[in-house]
Each structure stands twice: as structure tokens, then as C-alpha cells.
Amino acid sequence: MTAAVFFGCTCIAFGPALALYVFTIASDPLRIIFLIAGAFFWLVSLLLSSLIWFVAVTISSTKNESVQRGLLIFGVLCSVIIQEVFRFAYYRLLKKANKGLMTISQEETAPISIRQLAYVSGLGFGIMSGVFSLVNILSDSLGPGIVGIHGDPPQFFLASGISRGVSLNSFPELYFPLIFSVSRPFFWSLFILSTCWLFLWFFYFPLYQFT
Amino acid sequence: MITFMNSDSEEEVCNERTSLMSTESPPARSYHEGICTEERDKEIQEKRRGSPCHHGDADQCTPDSRGSTRSSSLEEEEEEEELTLKYGAKHVIMLFVPVTLCMVVVVATIKSVRFYTEKNGQLIYTPFTEDTPSIGQRLLNSVLNTLIMISVIVVMTIFLVVLYKYRCYKFIHGWLILSSLMLLFLFTYIYLGEVLKTYNVAMDYPTLFLVIWNFGAVGMICIHWKGPLVLQQAYLIMISALMALVFIKYLPEWSAWVILGAISVYDLVAVLCPKGPLRMLVETAQERNEPIFPALIYSSAMVWTVGMAKVDSPTKGALPKDQEQEDDWSDTSGDHSYSETYDSPRCTPLHVPSYAVEELEEEEERGVKLGLGDFIFYSVLVGKAAATASGDWNTTLACFVAILIGLCLTLLLLAVFKKALPALPISITFGLIFYFSTDNLVRPFMDTLASHQLYI
Asked: Where are the annotated segments for Disordered (chain B) (predicted)?
């Protein structure tokens, strides 16, 4: 594949996120720190969920295709649940930190509002998850080879880029603010959003059954 | 088989970099710069106002003076906290950027230039080979390699501290100049040669000589004498990256990981224990009111403003010694002004009202300091992850994020404790945890997901 494919897919996948970063976050150091902290928390959640998946796979230790697939889906569900838990935990941590910052500083306004925090943390989560999913594929696209030579669909890269970048990358930061701004009906919004997330997965799975 | 040549200078480079560098050593002039200045102001003002009390003449102290001292110190504390928070995030980013740049340079080189991932021999500090038949033997060899390396570093650090204590400045400066000469000329020549080979670019010797001569000469001037701050920072980042690449090439795999773990433990011990060599170095430098050598520390201090010139004039006479020393500094002018204003209240009480104002101005110009050894070992960790993680970018990214978060936490602790702290332990621990777990647990998971086009 060529550099054109690489740059094209990278821009499709990361263009919106990069634009959001450059125009809103790059100017304020505090936001950059919270962005990286959000990425870190996502990473920890991924670590835990892959630990669970790995343990499940080594315990089952069969070469059966459908069992492996079932375990994979179980791993994905676990990962989604753990991510939500970590989002909640991060929210609590940030709330405490914000309170601490407010009490220490004598200024009237907090250095960063809870909505900005929600936006930045969600973006951090989203960027990290997007990068983790795509960067290996992208680096492979720079190397030699032809996609689809063994009968696999040749639109692998484009599909990956579009699906990952546009829909899923922006999802976290869309509903993260929703969680934070509605702190009283917090549990309702969490419930609604978790169902949206799970619904998305059930929507995707049948599609991928046929590929 | 190439064992590393120039072992003496290599030793020097190896040790005086890692030894000193591992601290956030700003004795009185860096980030704590932001904080220490105000504490010292507090102390100075309290001393001045409350000095009759402190000398045991408690009866002579009026309650008023005590009260005023307390309220003024409270105000200063509040001011201090505000400024801390306001500039805390900026200082963290001022360190994120160079650390990121260094890591990017190292990872880009590792991924593109094949030379640095080829096994071409080992350093004399890691004499035991890892090509052994059994795993136990390999583990034993790597532990022995680590012991030798760490003991060499400890010996050289103690030697440096002893030299510093007995004021053998010329020897230390000569040592530093020799090691930076080697880095700037020899290692750059090797690096440039390998990069040109990788991209198949032809370059004749006269051009090469010109390029390397200019690069090296300007680097020596910027690092050891005066130069624009950005250029000095760029050179320090480049030599840290070169040093890290040398380590990545010549340290065998398992030894590298064990050495990383051991050196963060050593860093912790050396900086925090009362008899630790690095702590003694920092305290001696603080007592003597001297800056630590410019070639060993990355400083992010911003450019000085003209406004400070006013404070300089009355104290010029009082501090000739400091002036001479400041000439050695290349543009870390934060120290310059700080050491002068430190003494001004004692000499000229009239300056006290304006002192608070100038203090604020000074605050804006403060930077943070990080030792070059920290840069080197962070880059070694990320570079090794890039080199040996079976071609996986996820591991590299995970280690990168882990190191940045560790640095952030270290700076947070620095703001809380307000004294020199080791920058290696937290970051390296996070980095190691993330490397091993990402390589062994996350990678199979993500690969399986990617092949099924499932995304999390």
C-alpha cells in the first residue's frame, strides 16, 4: 500500500479529534494534562479487560472457532462495562480534585469548569481508544502488500478508518458531557447511555457475522 | 565485535549524566523556583521582623510584631498557593514538551534506522552475555550485568560529589566538556552516518565535516557558555536522545529492563536518603548558593525581562561572587535574578515593598528543571518498547502515556513537598508495568479484535 492510503486513512480517522485538540485544548496546559490523564484511565481500563479476556482464553484453551469468538464477544462486553466503571471513577476523582482546587485557591472561579473537564476527559478517552485500535493497522498500511488478495474485502482500511474515526471516536466525548452536566439524574443518563452503547454492539455484531 | 571504545569518556558520560541527572535538582533556582522564592521571602521577612524573638530575647518581642508577622506570612502563603496553581500546569507542560520530543526522536530513529536495533556487541559495563541456553542462566547474567552497571554509577556519583565538595571545579568542568565533546561530535557522526545509509543519501566528507563541525561547535558553546535558550534546550534534547540510542543499542534485552528497575530504586535512595550522594550534592549546592552544572540539567526557564535590571544595581556591590558564577550560566537567568534578590532585603530594607512586586514578575519567568539522566532513561524505556515489542505501536504508546503521567505525578509531589525529588521512580514503574502488561495481555486482545474488525 502507499503513503496515500496511510495519510488518507489517518486523516479520516483522526481528523476531527486532531482538529478538536488543536483548536480547543492545545492552548491551555491544564486541559492537556487532563486529556492525558483521561487517556491514561482508558488505558488502565483496557488493561483490566484484556487481563480478564486473557485469563478466560487460557482457561478455555480450545481451538474451537465459535468458542473463541464467543470469548471475544464476552471480552468486548467486559471491556465496555469496565470502561464505564472507569469513566465513573474518573468522574468522582475529578470532582474531588476540583473541590480541592477550589478550596485551596482563593479565586472565585475554578481554573477549569466541570463541563470543560468532561469534554476534555471524554476526548482523551476517545483519542486513546481510537489510536489504540487503529495505529497498528495504519503502520501496516505503509508497508508492502495488497489488501484483499486472499478474498478478504479490499475496503478493510477504509472501513476501519471510517467506522473507528467518525462514529466511535466522537461517541465518548459526546456523551461524557451528558453524564457530567446532569449530575442529579446521573444514574438515568448512565443507564440510557449504556444501553445505547450495548445497542451499538448488538447492531454491529450481526453485520460482522457476515464478513 | 565492538565493545565500546573510549571507555573512559564513556564512563564519564554514563555516570555523570545518570548520577546527577536523576534528580529534579533545582537547589534554589528552578521550579521550586516558583515555590522556594516565596518561602524564602517569608523566612527573610519573618527573620527581619521577628529576629529579636529568634535570638532568645522573647521578652522584647511585642505581640504586634508577632501578629503582623503571622498575618503577612499567611498572605504570602495564599499568594504562594495561587501562583503555584496558576503556574503549576504551565510548568508541567514545559516539561512534557521536551520529554515528548526526546521520545519521538528516539522512537523515530529506532523504527527507521536499523543500526540501532542490531546486536553488535555489548558495553564493557555489561560483560555477561544473554545468549545462554537456559532461562535461569540468562536471568542470572542480566542481574549480574545490572549489579556491575549500578555499582559503576554509584562509584562515579560518589566521586563526583566528593570532587564537588572539595571544590575541584576545574576537574568537573573538564570532565563535562570532554563528555559533551564526545557526544556532540563522535555520536553525532555515527548517527548521521547511519541515517544517511538508511535513506541512501550520498554525502561527501567535506560537507560532512562542515556540518558536524558547525553542529558540534555551536552545541558546545550553547551548552557550556551562553546561547539562546531554545537552542540550548534543543541541544540538550539531542544529546539525551543520542545517549539513549547508545544505551538501547548496546544493552542486552533483559539487562536493560532490570537496569531500568534498579536505577529507579537507586534514584529514590540517592535523592531521598539523608546520606544519599545526590541529596548531598543538592544540599551543598544550596549551601553555597551555586547553580548545578549547566551541562547536566535541562532548564525550561523563560527569557528574562528588562524590569529586573532595577533590582540588580543596588546589590551589585554586595554580590560580586554570584555575578561571576552567573556568567557561567547560559541563559538560565532565573537563577541570576533570584540569587541577587535573595540578598537584597538584607542589604536594603527599603526594597521590601517593591520586593513583593518584583517577586511576582520573577514568578512569571520561572521554569522547571529536570536532569538529563531522566530524559535518557525515559527515552530508553520507550525506545526499548519500540524496538522489542514485536513491531507493535500500542506498547510504545502505552509506555509513553505512562511516563507522562508519572512525570505529572512527580511534579505534583514536587509542588506539595517543595524539595528536590527523584523523577525516575514513578514514571519508570508505570512504564515497566504498562510495557509488560501491554505486550503480553493487551496486544493479543487488540490483534484479535482488529482482525475481526471489532472496536472498543
From this structure: 1-80, 315-345
For the entire predicted model, the pTM comes to 0.75
Query: What share of residues in chain B are helix, strand, coil (percent, to 5)?
Result: 80, 0, 20
Burial of B370 (0-12, 13-18, 19+ CB in 10 A): buried
The ipTM value here is: 0.81
How far apart (Å, rounded) are the C-alpha atoms in residues A123 and A21?
8
Of B89, B404, B455, nearest to A133 by CB-CB distance is B455
Write the DSSP string, B263-310: HHHHHHHHHHSTT-HHHHHHHHHHHTT-PPPGGGEEE---PPPGGGHH
- In our burial notation (b when 16+ CB lie closer than 10 A, e otherwise), range A65-98 reads eeeeeebbeebbebbbebbbebbeebbeebeeeb
Burial B207-228 (b: 16+ CB within 10 A, else e): eeeeebeebbeebbebbbeebe
| CA nearest to B402 within chain A | A40
Q: Minimal CA–CA distance to A125: which of A52, A203, A20, A198?
A: A20
Q: Are strands B369-371 and B297-299 parallel, antiparallel or unpaired?
A: antiparallel
End-to-end CA distance of chain A, in Å?
A: 22
| Interface touch A101/B85, C-beta < 8 Å | yes
What are A59-110's pLDDT values in tens digits?
887 778 888 888 888 888 888 889 888 888 888 888 888 777 777 665 556 6
Residue B294 CA, chain-centre distance (Å), reads 11
Q: Over the stretch B353-381, which tens digit does the pLDDT of each residue have? A: 444 444 444 444 567 889 999 999 999 99
**pLDDT at residue B81 greater than cutoff 70:** no
Instruction: Report chain B residues whose CB lies below 8 A from the CB of A137.
Output: 450
Kindly give, in sequence order, each residue whose CB lies less than 8 Å from that of residue B388, ignoring residues fewer than 6 positions away.
B253
**CB contact (8 A) between residue B92 and residue A47:** no
Q: Please count the structural domains in chain B.
A: 1
**Which element (helix H / strand E) includes A78?**
helix A65-104
Name chain A contacts of B92, Cβ cutoff 8 Å: 29, 33
- C-beta separation of B456 from A46 below 8 A: yes
Name the residue in chain B with its Cα closest to that of A77: B456
Given B41, B267, B392, B439, the catalytic residue: B267
**Cell numbers 560532512 correspond to what residue?**
B208
Contact A46 B442 (CB under 8 A): yes
Residues of B in contact with A43 (CB under 8 A): 398, 401-402, 434
Would you kindly state where each structural domain of chain A is located, as residue ranges? Answer: 1-207
Task: Output the pLDDT for position B337.
Answer: 33
B374 is catalytic: yes
What CA–CA distance (Å, rounded) separates B77 from B38?
8
Q: Which long-range contacts (C-beta less than 8 Å, at least 24 apart) are formed by B317-323?
A: B318/B343, B318/B347, B319/B343, B322/B289
Chain B residues in contact with A80 (beta carbon < 8 A): 456
How far does B408 lie from chain A, in Å, by closest CA? Answer: 8
B335 counts as catalytic: no
Domain residues for the domain of B137 are 90-300+368-392
Helices (H) then strands (E): counts for chain A = 7, 0
Nearest residue on chain A to B450, judged by CA atoms? A133
Please tell me which residue of chain A has the smallest CA distance to B90.
A29
